[in-house]
Specification:
It contains 12 helices and 12 strands. With about 350 residues, the protein is of the alpha/beta class. The protein binds S-adenosyl-L-homocysteine and iron/sulfur cluster (SF4).
Length: about 350
């Protein structure tokens, strides 16, 4: 008979760990002590938990697993952005990014290896979905990033804008947020988290019920159903109108807004008529628009608009009362910018590999 895999410390909430500690006949305070080692003190092995008795450390190693992704690449951009390639036990890899800024520091985290959504301008989409990440793997990126950047005990923001579609891996994503929220760990407030999604309507409605509610960013990218369907395939199931309706009923906190991300593709969705349609579409939604000039890449069949075209769209929106920002592209020299996250050693003979080889 095969033995069950031991519980993995990286996946356990404090309540789970307290339960395990009780069933192991250990005093209850040990749970918080171990939890803090993982989520506050950056331990990656039981051996590092130096204030636990040696016998206890040996017992924990025998009875619990403790997975931490390993850093296989660490690249620093000229603008200070840092991209880590992390590898999990099954050798699958993802990328996550540190975006330094004053006053706030941001970690951009992945939720899946690859992505099933297939947006036409996104390299991750070209990989297809390889697998979902677990909650511990999503939150583990934050442990690794916070340790690598010396921010373990400092405030930071999280954006779920790395590889993958967070609402397609809903339960693990929400559980990861719960792990990061634990007061005895990072104690990350939900308002420091932004979840970016392509807009899977039933999951948006589910998100609207969550006790730990992140800020919401919707990847809109288009102003007509046909135009969006041609660049964001899930539109065929959940159309623009349904997404915007879901946003209208989404509980947005006072003084807060939903961000609508809009990747500008030259000659495709960057006309002034698009800008005017966008304002109309978002009428009645507590919205702000984040324009993202395309980060072009070989194999992506679109061009980045000129700065003048980007400015014209931004001005048209602003003139009609829309709050608008243009996303500065960070880390392009190390391919850490939006939509440039792709792991070159993905599946054998995957589209990603073929593409990566061309880069
Ligand atoms: N799957 C989620 C979150 C990850 S993508 C989503 O799509 O929202 C994060 C952001 O990067 C999205 O707004 C996405 O549209 C954008 N993006 C993808 N490819 C890009 C590219 N080549 N250039 C600029 N932004 C891109
Ligand atoms: Fe997936 Fe987001 Fe890329 Fe679309 S833009 S393929 S949803 S990661």
């Amino acid at each position: 008979m095969q033995r069950d895999a031991p519980p993995d410390l990286a996946e356990l909430t404090l309540a789970d760990l307290e339960q395990w500690v009780a069933s192991a006949g250990l005093p209850r305070y040990r749970a918080a002590q171990i939890f803090q080692w993982v989520w506050r003190r950056g331990a990656t092995s039981f051996d590092a938990m130096s204030d636990l008795p040696r016998e206890l450390r040996a017992r924990l190693s025998a009875e619990l697993a403790f997975s931490t992704p390993t850093v296989v690449r660490d690249e620093l951009s000229v603008d200070g952005t840092r991209k880590l390639v992390l590898r999990f036990a099954d050798r699958r890899e993802i990328e996550c990014v540190f975006i330094p800024d004053t006053p706030s520091q941001t970690f951009c985290v992945s939720t899946q290896v690859g992505c099933a959504m297939g947006c036409a301008f996104c390299l991750t989409g070209r990989m297809g979905l390889v697998r979902h990440l677990t909650a511990g793997e999503i939150a583990g990126q934050v442990r690794v990033l916070a340790t690598a950047t010396g921010l373990l005990d400092r405030a930071f923001n999280i954006v779920l804008m790395g590889m993958g579609e967070p609402l397609h891996n809903y339960d693990a994503t929400m559980r990861a947020l719960a792990l990061l929220h634990e007061p005895k760990g990072f104690a990350l407030p939900p308002k420091r988290v932004t979840l970016s999604t392509v807009g899977l309507v039933p999951m948006l409605d589910r998100l609207a019920q969550e006790p730990l509610m992140p800020n919401l960013a919707i990847s809109l990218h288009a102003t007509t159903e046909a135009q969006r369907a041609s660049i964001v395939p899930p539109t065929k199931k959940y159309g623009l109108a349904a997404i915007v309706e879901a946003c209208r009923r989404f509980p947005v906190a006072k003084r807060s807004r939903i961000t609508f991300e809009y990747v500008l593709l030259a000659g495709v969705n960057d006309s002034l008529a698009d800008a005017r349609r966008l304002v109309k579409l978002l009428d009645g939604v507590k919205a702000k628009v984040n324009l993202i000039p395309l980060n072009a890449a070989p194999g992506i069949p679109f061009d980045r608009p000129t700065d003048a075209a980007v400015d014209a769209v931004a001005r048209t929106l602003a003139d009609r009362g829309m709050t608008v920002s243009v996303r500065r592209s960070r880390g392009r020299d190390i391919r850490a910018a939006c939509g440039q996250l792709i792991v070159e050693s993905g599946r054998t003979k995957s589209a990603a590999q073929t593409l990566a080889a061309a880069l």
